[in-house]
What does this fold into?
Amino acid sequence: MPYVLRHESTGEILACIQKNIYRLDYYGIKWWETEEEAEAARPEVLEQLKVPDPHRWQILRVDEHRLKLFNVKLKNNPNLLLRMDNQGTLLVSPHDGMPLTPKNGE
It folds into this structure.
C-alpha cells in the first residue's frame, strides 16, 4: 500500500513537482511503497521542499485507488493543493504560494 504525508492540522496531502519514469516533470502526490521508506525519506523531502513545521507532517497509508484519485484531483496543476479532512473528504483549492519544488529538481 502506498504511503503519503498529510499535515496534521490543515489536512494537506504533500504534493510537489517530480520526474516521471520518462524524466518529464509532473506535479503530483509524493508517495512511497512502504512506511519505512516514507519514514526514512520524510526529513530530507520536507527539508528539500522547505516545508514549514516539518514535524507536523504525518505518514498516512492509502490504497492505490485513493492515490490515483489524489493525482486526478490535482490535474498535474502546481497551482492546486489537496486537503483531506479527518473523515476522508477531499478538497482541492488554489495554492496560496509557490508550488513545492525540490532543490535538485527531482
Q: What stands out?
A: Strands lie at 3-7, 12-13, 15-19, 25-29, 31-32, 57-61, 80-84, 90-94.
